[in-house]
Structures are given as structure tokens and as C-alpha cells.
Amino acid sequence: MNGISAKTGALKAHFEALGAVPVETSILQPAEALLDLYGEDIRARAYVTSDASRGEQMLRPDFTVPVVQMHMAGGAEPARYTYAGTVFRRQEEDETRANEYAQVGYEVFDRAEPVAADAEVFTLIAQALGDAPVRASTGDIGILVAAVSALETSQARKDALLRHIWRPRRFRALLDRYSKPAVQRDVLAADDPFAGAGPAIGLRRKSDVEERIAALREDAEVAPISKREIELIEALLNVRETLPFALEQLRDLAVDLPAINPAVERLSARTTALRTRGVDVSKLEFEASYGRTLMEYYDGFVFGFYAETRADLPPIATGGRYDALTRRLGQGAEIPAVGGVIRPDLLMMLEGAA
After folding, report:
1. Residue 195: pLDDT over 60
2. Is 189 left (phi over 0), alpha (psi -120 to 50) or beta?
3. What is the pLDDT of residue 92?
4. Tens of pLDDT along 243-255?
5. In sequence order, what are the residues at sequence separation of 6 or more whose Cβ sits closer than 8 angstroms to the Cβ of residue 197?
6. What's the CA gap between 278 and 123, in Å, rounded?
7. Which of 65, 143, 157, 339 could join 263 in a cystine, given CB atoms 3.0 to 4.6 angstroms apart?
């Protein structure tokens, strides 16, 4: 057994000793569920293969989706799981980053006390990292989701912004576009937009094009998002402080953005729960935008642990809350859930340097 395998096993055994049930998932995962969740974007991050009997398959890009599927198919409540194994990520832009590596995870499904579960996962992951020189960053996707959901604009525009919360550049482009009057296009004003269009080419049916034109015409009638609302969203995205000061800033913003009040109060309760578990929240970083480039299923609390002396390394551990994912995969059922993963190879690297 090599060093990484031994470290992986030790971390998994650590979580088992805390009461987590060990589970395993197949390395090959059906592509359908992942494509439904992330659309074609997932192909840029995953290795895809297929066969005649099983259709498209993906080399496991992470453990959370199959673990949620397993739990929603009949897991006990509450439940705590741990797992260990290899995940696979395509690296088309940075050849120095690993395209396969080990992960060890800890997941909690508990509807009784979600805030306490957030604090539990964060602190147990931190404890598993031991004395490794790391710093923690936290955020809460739910606050931004609440703010976007309350914008005074069409539901279609809010849905588009919500879809792209995890793509900051696209989100920003949409926000800029929706803050200005819609561009009036000749094809939208035409009585017959197909006049002189020539023969149909491609896979789209005429009815698909008609639906798109109707949606564009409807959007063209929507008033721009107000300058005040844009400023409030930008102020929210710029919140970056230690947790107590960030909480003060968010409460100030909630005066003009009352829709975020419930999410801010959850953050306050989580702060108390973390403090109760011995976390020095006065030094804990909070960033309202944190987590927006992680996997799209996070919809609440998010966190990551980073090497203090190696800014070039990916996060040593990450995690967060993914309640909506259980709803998507639960066929009508749902349960609050939160989890985190550790990369044993990076942890060993830091331990060796310490």
C-alpha cells in the first residue's frame, strides 16, 4: 500500500470511527443524471464513454451525486456516510493539474438541525486535516439566490440569472444586459419573421424557432432592472470580511434587501453553532461570492481549506450544502444535506512540508 492509499484509508477510518457508514459507488456513472443536472457543460469536465447496452457513461467526476441517489433510494434518516476513491476531471486549460486523484468524503443527511449539521461537517473536516498549515474560506450561495429571486423583473430573467450563478462571467453579462433597455431587433418586429428566410437547415423545428422568438418578444417588453437593485446585488457580491463583520454588512444590506433576511439569520445561527464547536469565527473568512465556481449543486453554506504557503495548489478540502440536489434526485422527496471532501495527496504534501 503506497502512502496516498494509506492516508486515504486512515481518513476514511477516522470518519467511520465518528459513526459514518462506509459506502461505495461505481467508477462508471450513467451520464444521463449528470447531463440533466449540469447540461452539456459537464462534458468539458468529465471523461465520457458509451456502450451499446448501458448508453453514455462518465468516469466518476465526484461522489456526491451517486451518494445522494443511493440515499434517496432508501437511506435511513438521519444518515452519515463516508467514502473513498478516485475521481476523474478533464484538465483542458491547465495540464499541471491532476486529472485523477483520490477523495475522502463525509456526508450528513439530517432534517432536524441543518445549521448544526453545517457546523458539524466543517469542524470534522477541519479536525481531519490535523495540523496541516491551511486557512479556511466560507460563503453562502443561499444569500445570493434569495437576492436574485426577489429582483423586480420577469421570472424568465430571474431564472436565467439563477442558472448562471455558478458562472460568474455569464452572470455578470446577464446582469449588465438586464440593466439596460432591450435591443429591438427587426426580426422581432416583423409580422412574419420567416419571410425570405429560405429553406430550414439544422435540427430545430419551426415551432422551436417560433417559441424562441415569442420568448424574445416577451423579454423585449420587460423594463430594465433598476440601478438601485443592481447596486445592491453588486454590494452583496463585494462582501468579503471575517465572519462577524460580514454578518454586520449583510444585516445592513438586508434593510434594503429584505428577501435575504432568512438566509442572513441562518448564517447568524451557523456562526453560533461554529463557535459552540470551538471555531474561532473572529478569524474565519466569509465571502458572499465564494463557491460560485464549485460544482453547481451547492445552494447554501460552502467552504474550502487552502494551503497557507502554497497558493498554487487547489483546495485541500471543500464542501457545502446541497438541499436542492436531494429534491432533484429524490423524485419528489427531499432532505437537507451537507458534506465535504478531502484530497489526501495534497494533505500529505502539506504535512511533509510542515
Report:
1. no
2. alpha
3. 64
4. 999 999 999 999 9
5. none
6. 8
7. 143
